Amino acid sequence: MKGITLIFALIFSVVINAQDIKPVFEQDGEMLKATYYHDNGVVSQEGQFLNGKLHGEWKMFAEDGKKIAMGEYTEGKKTGKWFFWDAKKLKEVDFVDSKIANVTEWNSMGQLAVNK
């Protein structure tokens, strides 16, 4: 479970640090919408900030545009269900105050593979 958190943190930090294309920010009431890009111009992340903290739904995309992760932040903390996709499985991770509470893996046939 810690591995999932580490992978997510690595993806997030590499994407943010490796970008040459500047992110786009748009004010929407109290929320600040943010869009980050891969070097090839494809969107890498979309989400919102509230009072300088990640807040609301965030989506992450691979360089080919495929969605690789989606989840919710509440005042900077991961909360609720997060989904992580790869070619062979879907991981459903439940977070409470940025801590992993449960992990469920589904195989490509839609069958339950692991429930931790």
Report on this model:
Pfam families: MORN_2. The protein is mainly β. It has one domain (2-115): Single Sheet (Histone H3 K4-specific methyltransferase SET7/9 N-terminal domain), CATH 2.20.110. Helix content is 14%, strand content 57%. The protein is built from one helix and ten strands. Strands 1, 2, 3, 4, 5, 6, 7, 8, 9 and 10 form a ten-stranded antiparallel beta sheet that branches. A hairpin with a 3-residue loop joins strand 7 (77-85) and strand 8. The protein is flat, with a radius of gyration of 15 Å. The chain starts with a helix and ends with a strand. The model has no long low-confidence stretch (mean pLDDT 85).
Tally of helical runs:
1
Our estimate of the beta-strand percent is: over 45%
The biggest beta sheet reads:
10 strands, antiparallel
How many structurally independent domains?
Answer: 1
CATH class category label: Mainly Beta
How many DSSP-defined strands? Answer: 10
What is the CATH-assigned architecture? Single Sheet
The helix/strand class is mainly beta
Radius of gyration: 15 Å
Low-confidence stretches: none
Organism: Arenibacter algicola
InterPro entries: MORN_2
Protein name: MORN repeat protein
Pfam families: MORN_2
